Structure formats: C-alpha cells, structure tokens
Amino acid sequence: MKLGRVIRETPDGAEIRLVAIDIDADLATDLRAAEGRRLRRAGATTEAAKAISGVYFPSSLTAALGAGQEFLRRVEQAIDEPDEKAVLPLGGLKWAPAIDPPAMLDFAAFEQHLVNAHARGKKELGDVFYERPVYYKMDPNTVIGHDDVVPWASESSYMDYELELGLVVGTEGSDLEPATAQEHLLGVTVLNDFTARDVQAREMPSGFGPAKGKDFATALGPWVTTLDELDINDLTMVARVNGEEWSRGSTSTLTWSIGELLAYASRSGKLVPGEVIGTGTVGLGCGLELYKSLQPGDVVELEIEGIGLLRNTIGKQTGSFWQPSPKQRTASPTLPPRPTRSRT
Amino acid sequence: MKLGRVIRETPDGAEIRLVAIDIDADLATDLRAAEGRRLRRAGATTEAAKAISGVYFPSSLTAALGAGQEFLRRVEQAIDEPDEKAVLPLGGLKWAPAIDPPAMLDFAAFEQHLVNAHARGKKELGDVFYERPVYYKMDPNTVIGHDDVVPWASESSYMDYELELGLVVGTEGSDLEPATAQEHLLGVTVLNDFTARDVQAREMPSGFGPAKGKDFATALGPWVTTLDELDINDLTMVARVNGEEWSRGSTSTLTWSIGELLAYASRSGKLVPGEVIGTGTVGLGCGLELYKSLQPGDVVELEIEGIGLLRNTIGKQTGSFWQPSPKQRTASPTLPPRPTRSRT
After folding, report:
1. Residue B65 and residue B71: Cα distance in Å, rounded?
2. Segment B243-301, tens digit of pLDDT
3. DSSP 3-state assignment of B140?
4. Which secondary-structure segment (H or E) carries B266?
C-alpha cells in the first residue's frame, strides 16, 4: 500500500488530505472522502459520516497513525469499495510532505559515504562509527514534500543533496531488539537530506552536530510504501540532477541493519508513530563525494525501487538574513579544586 | 500568568488538563472545566460547552497555542470568573511536562559552562562558539515533568544534571531579528537537560552531537511563566541535590542574548508554537564542572527566580539493553578523480 498526502482546495481554503495511491491505475483515493461516502452508503447521517471520517483521516498522517491497527483497517475498507467521487487522477496532484513527523533522527549507517566524506576532508573515519550506529536529529519544522522548491540556505554557496531511505514508524516501541524492531515500522519513504556544505563545515567543529547546515529543508516523499510491498534490505537507490544520473546505490550496502538502527533509536527512549528515521546517505549518494554541487534551478530527483520518485527544485539564493557578530572571549575556567574522590 | 499541565483521573482513565496556577492563593484552575462551566452559565448546552472547552483546552499545550492570541484571551476569561468546582489545591497535584514540544533545540549560550566543560577535558573552547550561537536538538520523545523519576540511561555509570532556562515559543516566526524575536515567546520554564556523561564522551568524537548521552530524559516544568511576569535577562538560577546547593548562576551571564538565540534558531527555518529552546547550561550549572555525579535516589531541584522549582528523582540503573557489536572496517575511499572545476 502507498499512503501520501495531497493539498486540495475547499471552501475554507487549502486542506491536506490523506490519500492511498494506486500506481497501476494512475489514481489516488481521497481517504476522508471515500470513508465518508462509504459510511453514508451504510446508513450514516451526513453529519456523522463527516465527523467519523474526519477523525480517522485528519490532515496529519501522524495523528491518523495514532489510531493503531484500526488505521490500516479503515484504509483498506475505504479503498476496497471504490467510489469514483473520492478518486483523483495522479497527474496534477499537489503533494504535501508524505508525513508530518513529530521527531526525526538521521543515522550514518552507510560506511562508504562516511569514508568518502572524511576522505574529502583528508581524515580517516573515527572508530565511533564502527562501535555504534551514530545519529543526529533532523528538523521537523522544515520538512518539504514532492515537487516543493528547496529554500536556499542563508550564508551558503554550496548546496548539496543526500540520497537516503526514510523509515516511518507506525507503532510506539521502547528498548527494542534488532530481530523484531522492524515490526514497529509502517513503511518507508524517500528522504533527501539537503545540506549546505559550507555552513556545515563552519559549524561542525563545535562537535554539536549539523545545525543550520541541515535545518532549512528535508524532503520526504512522494509517499510512504508499506513494508509488505518490498524487501527494504535490497532496494536500488538513484539520484539524478537535471535528468543526469549522479548517484546509484542500494540499501543492501547498509553497515548497520535497519533492525539495529531501530533498536538503538529506541534504547532508553522510544519510537513514536509518525517518527522518521533516516538511514544516512548511501555511498556516493551526494555531491560532496562527486566534487559536484547544486545551483539555483537544478532539479534533483531521488528514486528508490518500490517506493517512487521524489523531485525537488533548488530555489534562489536569499537576500538579507541575520548573521551573528562574533563575541569576545572573556571567561577563564572556574573549576573547583579536583577532589580526591569523584563524589563529595 | 503561569500555565501548566496536570494529570487528572476521569471515568475514561488518566487525562492531562491545562491549568492556570495562582501561587499566592496556592490554587490551580482546570481551564477546560472552568471554561465549560463559564459557557454553561452563559447559556450553552452541556454538549456544546464540553465541545468548545475541549477545543480551546485540549491536553496538549502546543495544540492550544495553535489558536493564536485567542488562547490567552480564553485563559483570562476562564480565570476571571472563578468557579470553585474548577479550582484545585496546588498540593497533591500530579504534574505532566509543562509542555509537549513539537521540536526542541538546545543552545550553548553560557561561555562559562563551555570553558569549564572543555577545561575538564584539557581542551580550549573552539572559535566556533564565539562566531555563532551553537545548538543541538533535544529529543521530544523523552520529555518528563515535575516530580517524575529520571530513567537511568542504559550503558551509563555517570549521570548528571544541567541547569537551563527553557524558552517556550508562542507564535510562528521565520528569519527573525534579535531586537524583536522575543515577541514570539509565550514564556519560560525550567529545563533540566539530564546527561549521561560517559555515554556522551563515547559518542561525541563522531562530531554528530549528543545522542544517547542526552536522549533518555529532558525535564520541563513545573509550568510556563509568561513573559509579562519577569525580566528574563536577569533571573537567578539555582540547583540543589538532596537539599544541598550545588549550582548558582544567572541569566544575566548569557553570552548570546535571548533575542540572538531566537533569531538564529529561526534563520532559514521557523519557530513553531510550543517549541522549546534551551539556553544551554549556566556556568557551574552541572556536576561535570564540580567533579560531582548523581546516584540513584538523588533528588535534583532546579529553581529559577520568577518561574518555580523543578524537582526530579534519579531512577535505578536498568538491567539488560541492546548494546551494538562493533562492525569491521571494510570500505576504502571511492572518490572519483578531483576535477579541475568544482561543477562538471
């Protein structure tokens, strides 16, 4: 099953609707509309049909996943009885981000990408990447969808893409084991972790991880494919810029398995419905590894086998923005004398 | 005004209710109950009063802030006409996290803390901390509230607290200027950025920032104080462990102003209602800077002038957890030949 979100016009303005996509038929079913019509056929009043379908199929896929197993049952019911008034041709749809994640992690689970990126900086990859699956957190406030323009990051003159698989959590889980963690996934999507390389290079010496080098745009889409449709451990991943292939890889080259990533992500914490977990960039899956960069107007297409194609256009450089003025060093260490025992 | 969230029992189980706190009267007003009763007095049916009060005062403070300026107007209305059936004595209340943030950043805006923490590692603080306000992202999935037990982080034998001011965003804003950014704040809360120092030390060499060293618990509470009640640029901050004062500082020692932090946070992105932005730890505001650590059963109290006191008890060490087995190094760089121009 493929589940996405599209933007439809209503008398109250634009509204995001959950859709189920049928690629072969070139159609999407507006789930709220379909469920409302199904309920009316089963004797519900217009008022009740609207209220119930709105609760099961709100604009937020994360909120919809909150219904647990009932959510997918309702989706199946809504598309099992097709109603032509709830069906839309795929062409011409305006896409919202496939999901509105309440939290987003990004792992660095492809050794080849890390080795290459470090080699560009004349560095060897540190032991920590082999000792544990390393991650940082992405910015849920700047998620964009299929066909959206990527805002050019302030302060940057080196924009890049990153070709990643996005894991979408379906059900809550804590302290999971690698062998069974995958049961908590709803499905997968295509993730483009857009990066301002020069900003990233300036901020990474802090050791605090990517910040404004990443927190301007993360693309998720075009939709989520549920796990029953594919073998997520062997998916071909391709990136094209202006129609030319730049990157090609496979999820089969993951250094840390998807089960291991989910287990680590959930350790001493929890996965929540709608959360998105990136695998990190596949080897040679970004311009940095290819001595290439993106320019305004470039069209970036990421395609993952069995999911679909996520396309974005790079926006224009922005004008003015607030740039911090450097501060003076004023403080010296004020540590107390080191005690003979660690706890006093 | 002080706004918080408490857990109340209902026939359908425990439910989080938004409350307005009157410290002097030692009372909290259940806003949903108060608004429902006010509406009924104004002629609303029981059904409509329940529906309307539930929309304005849901369990989520973030969702409530979505109503914009109407939210605070409704709060004022609900507490202006006190109804004894909606009022609860402060003592005995069970607190939920002050807010349920959709995103959380943590800055490193107190130079003294950074200089001290680096001195513990025999390092000088890097230039990047003086060039821009550095931040990392906190984990919204592991937020805890006042009086909650702090889960002991897996793999750790060195637990620590961090004394911070938490800024709570009220209204959306992008590319803000330092002089006016503060207008987007609802108020402030006390933030304890609990840290597993040994786990943090193992993962920081990645450069990807704190992960499992932080992503097990962040305490927010006891409530949010709106900005009209205080001067956030001069608040005394104190930490006590088992009743003994360990840390004392002030927001007046911030290296980057709160306006600068908000402006940078919003650059090429946006602040969203309910988002929490930490200032980072005040100088000498954690055990690391004092050669001290926390033990199971320790009671940590953080108090900030004009806000209140956030108290948490350190939990017991956990038993089994999944620990990754190291991977072998297998990849060598596969970079293409360096081109003569950067774009080919």
Report:
1. 6
2. 999 999 999 999 999 999 999 999 999 999 999 999 999 999 999 999 999 999 999 99
3. helix
4. helix B258-266
**Which chain B residue is nearest to residue A330, measuring alpha carbons?**
B111
Start-end of CATH 3.90.850.10 domains in chain B: 104-314
Buried-exposed string B242-273: b where 16+ CB fall within 10 A, e elsewhere: eeeebbbbbbebbbbbbbbbbbbbbbbbbbbb
Within 8 A of B267 by CB-CB distance, chain A residues are 154, 212, 321-322
Q: Answer positive or negative: Cα dihedral of B313, B314, B317, B321.
A: positive
- Give tens-digit pLDDT for B142-200: 999 999 999 999 999 999 999 999 999 999 999 999 999 999 999 999 999 999 999 99
Q: What pLDDT digit, counting tens, does each position of A10-22 carry? A: 999 999 999 999 9
Q: Tell me, what's the pLDDT at A341?
A: 64
For the domain B104-314, what is the CATH superfamily, name and number?
A: Fumarylacetoacetase-like, C-terminal domain (3.90.850.10)
Which of the 8 DSSP states describes residue A170? -
A 89-128 residues inside an 8 A Cβ radius of B: 102-103, 108, 111-112, 115-116, 119-120, 125-128
Per-position DSSP letters for A233-290, written without gaps between them: TS-EEEEEETTEEEEEEEGGG-SS-HHHHHHHHHTTS-B-TT-EEE--PPTT-BGGGG
- Whether A333 contacts chain B with CB within 8 A: yes
Rounded to whole angstroms, the Cα distance separating B278 from B229 reads 19
